[in-house]
Structure formats: C-alpha cells, structure tokens
Write a structure and sequence with these properties.
The chain is of the alpha/beta class. It has two domains: 12-152 and 317-340, Rossmann fold (3-Layer(aba) Sandwich); 166-314, 3-Layer(aba) Sandwich (Rossmann fold). The chain is built from twelve helices and twelve strands. It has helices at 12-26, 63-75, 92-95, 113-121, 179-189, 204-211, 228-236, 253-260, 273-276, 289-298, 304-314, 317-340; strands at 32-35, 44-47, 83-85, 102-105, 127-129, 143-146, 166-172, 193-198, 220-222, 238-243, 265-267, 283-285. It has a six-stranded parallel β-sheet with strand order 9-8-7-10-11-12, sandwiched between helices. Strands 3-4-5-6 form a four-stranded parallel β-sheet, with helices on one face. Helix 5 crosses helix 10. InterPro entries: Glyco_trans_1, Glyco_trans_4-like_N. It comes from Benzoatithermus flavus.
Length: 341
C-alpha cells in the first residue's frame, strides 16, 4: 500500500503485483487484490487505504495502515484457495496457522543479519525468490520456487532505431545503485546520460553531497522520477541502460524494462544481474568502469530485435503468471491433503 497497484511513478514491487494480477485474470482465474483505493485492476479490489500511503500527506507512519490491511485479508481468508503475499515478513505471525495456504514473494535483499532471526523462526512459511542469487544468504528457508519478474508484452514499445544518442540510468538515487558510476561511464565514453530516477528522503543527503555536484557536467541531465507512460520513450531512445549497481540486487526490473524496448543493458555482476542479462545478446556484464566504457563503445553491435526477442522469451507477464500457478497448484494440493489427513 505504500504505492498504488500499479504505482503512478516508482514502485517495483507494486508494478510486479499489477502485472501478475492482470495476467492471472487474463488466464481465467478469480483474483482479489488488497491494495489502496486508487489502484487500477481487472481483479476484485478490496480497498485498504484511500490512496497510496506515500502520496497521502496525512500519513506519517505506514505501519498501522499495513496492519489494518492484513486484518482485512485475515477476515476474508477462507474465501481463497491460496493467499499470495508481497509484504515481506509482516504477515507471518498472523497467518502462520494457515501457512500451507500461503506463499510469500520476497522482493528485497536477504543478506542483512537482522532478517535471519525472523526467517529462521518462521521457516514453515513458504517463500518464493525472484532470483536464485537472492536465496544465497538463506538457503535454509522454505523456498518453493524462483520466479523471475515479467512484463506485459504490450507495455513498452520496441524501438528498433533509437534517435536519442544517449545512455540511460533508471531507478533510484542511492549509494547501492551507483549513479556516480553511471555518470563516470558516460563522461568517459563521451556520451550524454539521462538520469530517470527518484530521490527517497533517506537518500537526500547522498544526492545533495555526492550526486548533485556531478550534474554540472554538460553531458549529464537529471530528469527525475518517471512513470510507465514516459518509459517507452526514455528507454527506447537510449543506446543502452547503465545498471552499475554495487549491492546484491534481488532482480532489477529496470533491466527487463529496457530489454522490452530493445535497449541493451550494461551492468555490473552483482546479485541477479548474470541471471537476467544474456551476455553478448541482451547486453554486457562488466566488472569495472573501464570495461563498462569499452562495452558502451560496442553496444551498437548488438541486435536490438534480438534483445526484444529474448525479452519476450524469458520475461513476459504470462510466463511469470504460469510459474506462479504451478506453485499455487502444489500448495493447494498439499493444503487439501493436510485437511484430509
């Protein structure tokens, strides 16, 4: 509920929830979405807040609103064969008695020591990873599958011949996303860089002290936060997306958004990057700024039609929905068997 489903601007988790929900409905399934009232969905919507909490000036603490959302789910739980959560671990104590009818997609990093105690305590809760790499810090969790994210095939248009002549950075201004690296790569390659990114309150100091002074360079343009309506143009007209991260990225939605437009990705080999980028096909995985600059100079050698084709093969919303349906079926079978015992 921090963001609407789908979000107006930034919001990777809510965006994936929207794509999954719509794909499940298209495949003929009855789906109920518990989200803010300003969400848009073909499923049955149970409004849990008047609008996205991040955009509501009256909301100072989102936690009470999230607890009320979970209580609404609890009150209606018997209506559903499977309850699919995207709320990290917040719901674990409340839904542990019916763990076999739940599944939780974990969207965040799992290498933080504070998390391990709670996931060890609730090892009976079925969880799904969004990349195989995401599992590494907690191989002992009750993993029931890995499902890579997917996008609707008609969401972002394919651009075979970009006219922009620039590199793109999309996402969030934060130390782990390394926009400073992106700026250095673009400057050394002699190409413009357009930065499509939000600045969270927690990262304002980093932005002002580290990034803002770098924006004076004539090749660098800070555009700010954009939504899906602007992404097709922003990414499609770019020569490449720079993804020079410095953290165990669980997935990296921006990479497949770029691929949907036919735009190759130049990324550092952290987290899920090697699982998402097909080396020499949809982009280049590089280990240094020097290698990234060299990759920028070779990026026109990649076939943008092949980038789009590989996106369609690997990262469609329908494929994502079908992967989850297999997991739902296994959970429902186990739940029915347990009830019959």
């Amino acid at each position: 509920m921090i963001e609407a489903v789908p979000p107006r601007l930034y919001g990777g988790t809510e965006r994936v929830v929207a794509y999954l929900t719509e794909a499940l409905v298209r495949l003929g399934h009855e789906v109920t979405l518990f989200a803010s009232a300003d969400s848009g969905t073909s499923a049955e919507l149970v409004p849990c807040a008047r609008q996205a909490l991040r955009l509501d000036a009256d909301v100072r603490d989102p936690l009470p609103h999230q607890i009320l959302q979970l209580e609404l789910v609890r009150q209606q739980a018997q209506r559903f064969d499977v309850l699919h959560f995207h709320t990290d671990y917040l719901h674990f104590p409340l839904f542990r008695p019916i763990a076999e009818r739940t599944v939780t997609t974990l969207h965040g990093r799992l290498d933080l020591p504070d998390l391990h105690g709670i996931y060890r305590e609730f090892r009976d809760m079925p969880v799904v990873s969004i990349s195989n790499d995401q599992r590494r810090p907690m191989p002992w969790a009750r993993w029931v599958g890995t499902v890579h994210h997917g996008l609707p095939l008609d969401l972002l248009p394919f651009t075979p011949e970009p006219r922009g002549g620039y590199l793109a950075f999309l996402g969030r201004i934060s130390p782990e996303k390394r926009p400073d690296r992106a700026i250095e790569i673009a400057c050394r390659a002699g190409l413009p860089l357009r930065i499509f990114a939000k600045v969270d309150r927690a990262d304002e100091r980093y932005f002002h002290e580290r990034i803002a002074p770098m924006l004076d360079h004539p090749l660098i343009e800070f555009v700010g936060e954009i939504g899906d309506a602007e992404k097709g143009e922003a990414l499609g007209q770019a020569l490449a997306l720079l993804f020079p991260i410095d953290w165990p990225e669980p997935f990296g939605l921006a990479m497949i958004e770029a691929m949907a437009c036919g735009t190759p990705v130049i990324a550092f080999p952290c987290g899920a990057v090697p699982e998402v980028v097909d080396e020499g096909v949809t982009g280049y995985v590089v280990g240094s700024i020097d290698a990234a600059v060299a990759a920028v100079r070779r990026v026109r050698e990649l076939d943008r039609r092949q980038v789009r084709r590989r996106f369609e093969e690997r990262f469609s919303a329908e494929r994502m929905a079908k992967d989850y349906l297999e997991i739902y079926d296994r959970l429902a079978w186990r739940s029915h068997r347990a009830e019959a015992a």
